Amino acid sequence: TQLLEQSPQFLSIQEGENLTVYCNSSSVFSSLQWYRQEPGEGPVLLVTVVTGGEVKKLKRLTFQFGDARKDSSLHITAAQPGDTGLYLCAGGPSGTYKYIFGTGTRLKVLA
Amino acid sequence: EAGVAQSPRYKIIEKRQSVAFWCNPISGHATLYWYQQILGQGPKLLIQFQNNGVVDDSQLPKDRFSAERLKGVDSTLKIQPAKLEDSAVYLCASSPGWAEKLFFGSGTQLSVL
User: Fold this and answer.
1) Per-residue pLDDT tens for B84-106?
2) Which of A10, A39, A47, B67 is 20–30 Å from B37 (CA)?
3) Bond from prior residue into A93 cis (ω within 30 degrees of 0)
4) Is B19 in CB contact (< 8 Å) with chain A?
C-alpha cells in the first residue's frame, strides 16, 4: 500500500514563528502537490512540484521536492493566523494511476 | 465556470439504513474521485474513475459501498447498509486528467447513529 506520511500531525505555534511540515513515502511520485483545507470546505491546491530537488516559493511558503521524489517539505516563514488549517500533500505513486493524500498536518497559529 | 456540485450537504441516518451521494464534476473533466475523510485526517481514496471506467477501487468496502459514473459525467456513491464507522465527510473531486489539479466539492457530512 502506497502511503504518504506527514509529520507532525498537529502543530500549534505563535504568530511570527517559522515551521516545517514533512511528507514522506517509500514510493516514488512523478509529482507531489500541497493543498490547504479549511473547516467545511474541500482542499485547495497550493503548489505542484515535479522535478527532484525542485524548490518553489509562494510568498512566505517554500516547498521542496526530494531528490529521489519520495518526500517533500513545506516551510512557512513568519506564520500568521490566516495560515491556520489542515495541510495535505498528495500525488500519484509511480506505476499506478491513483491519486492519494497524505495523513495531514493540522496547523494552528495563535495571535 | 461552475465548480464541483455535491448533494446532499448533510445526512443523518441510523445504522443499517442506506444512503446515496451525488456528484456533478466540472464539465470536461475526465477523472472523478470519491474520498472519505475522517475529522482531522487526510482524505482516503475510495474510488477513482477515468471517464466511466474504474481506475482504482482497492480501498472501497465493496460489501457495502458501490459507485457508478454514468456516461462519464455524474457519479453516485451508495452505502448499504451503513455502519457507525461510516460517519465521515465524503468528498467528490474532479480533474482534467490524472494527477492534475483536483477541484473539490463542498462534501457531504454523514452521521450514522
Assistant:
1) 999 999 999 999 988 788 999 99
2) A47
3) no
4) no
